[in-house]
Amino acid sequence: MLEEKLVNYTQQIPDDYQPIFIGGAGRSGTTLLRVMLNSHPNLCSGPEFKLLPQFMDLYKQVNSSSYQPIAESYLLSSEYIQSIFATFIYNFLEPIRNYSRAQRVVEKSPHNVLVMKELVQVFPNAKFIHVIRDGRDVACSLKRMEWTNFNGEPLWYVENLENATKYWAEIITKGIEDAKSPLLNGKIKFVKYEELVSNPKNIMKKVLNFLEEQWNPSVLDYNKVQRNEEPVESSTKQVSKKLYTQSMNRWQREFTDENKEMFKNIAGSLLIQMGYEDSLNW
Questions:
Q1: What does the alpha-carbon distance between residue 12 and residue 31 come to, in Å, rounded to a whole number?
Q2: Rounded to an integer, what is the distance from CA 273 to the centroid of its chain?
Q3: How many CA atoms lie within 13 A of 272 on its CB side?
Q4: Comparing C-alpha atoms, which of 46, 36, 27 is closest to residue 201?
Q5: Cα–Cα dist 149/62, whole Å
Q6: At CB < 8 A and 24+ separation, what contacts does 9-15 make?
Q7: Rounded to the nearest 5°, which phi and psi values hold at 19?
Q8: How many CA atoms lie within 13 A of 129 on its CB side?
Q9: What is the pLDDT of residues 75-134, one digit of tens each?
């Protein structure tokens, strides 16, 4: 039997290891939620790790049917592959948790929301938070970004408002569809940015209850936490301030009539589905 030939060379991960993954379209408020949770004494979260989606893409390849004959030739069972990736990622995230003396680690990278099904296979006790924001405001914010990939090439979805709209629709749709998977039953919570900034105490109580963590008012004082050792991110300046609602409905100031029609054609129905509008008459 294949399982009898395997030797577990990986470091043992605690049975109760319960990482928390935050995701959502870029410029949706994922950084804000990260720093709020990082202020909780039981939780720690560093800046965007960024690479989990790429790790999970590799995980999917290694587990694909086309790769299975090769895996079997190397005596690699699916359980062994899972343990390799779990330990690999665990060893990236464990140092900051240990340094922070927190009980659990929170990793926020927007595109975690695209690989939730894979991450929960690797970490069965993980929980996920998908942050959602009005796509019109997301698009307005994205078009101002000068984001590039690791090769320094501009990201397609910050080039113009239309691309930003398509990107928002793709991310939201993928996140919603994957959340229907039995693998994620009871493991994912949707949080609206607008509700978070308008009623932070109520929303954070719900988030912490979902995470099975006790309420702690420190999550509302996130702006008092020093982040001098962290690299500067797109939202670093904003999350160093107290909560504010000025970024809500910015599309009303910036969208032209042409912009409105474009957005309606691409993502108008999704905007209704998410509860931001009840019709296309806006």
A1: 31
A2: 20
A3: 10
A4: 36
A5: 24
A6: 10/83, 10/84, 10/86, 10/87, 11/87, 11/90, 11/91, 13/86, 13/87, 13/90
A7: -70, 160
A8: 29
A9: 999 999 999 999 999 999 999 999 999 999 999 999 999 999 999 999 999 999 999 999
Mean pLDDT score of the chain, rounded to an integer? 91
- The single-letter DSSP state of residue 21 is E
- What tokens were used for 215? 């309420």
Residues in the chain: 282
- Contact (Cβ atoms closer than 8 angstroms) between residue 39 and residue 32: no
276, 169 contact by CB (below 8 A): no
CA dihedral (24, 28, 32, 36) positive or negative = negative
Q: What is the 3-state secondary structure (H, E, C) of 24-87?
A: CCCCCCHHHHHHHHHCCCCEECCCCCCCHHHHHHHHHHHCCCCCHHHHHHCCCCHHHHHHHHHH
Q: Measure the CA–CA gap between 111 and 202, rounded to whole angstroms.
A: 26
CB 116 within 8 A of CB 19: no
End-to-end CA distance of the chain: 63
| Residue 110 near residue 30, CB atoms below 8 Å | yes
Tokens describing residue 199: 């009623």
Secondary structure letter of residue 37 according to DSSP: H
Residue 58: Cβ within 10 Å count: 12
Helix 30-38 vs helix 200-210: angle between axes, to the nearest 10 degrees? 70
Instruction: Compute φ and ψ for 66, nearest 5 degrees.
Output: -70, -25
Of 171, 179, 131, 128, residue with least CA distance to 21: 128
Fold of 22-216+239-273: Rossmann fold (3.40.50)
What are the residue ranges spanned by the domains of the chain? 22-216+239-273
Summarised one tens digit per residue, pLDDT across range 212-228 is 999 999 999 988 776 55
What pTM was estimated for this model as a whole? 0.90
Q: What is the DSSP letter of 187?
A: T
Q: Residue 211 is which amino acid?
A: L
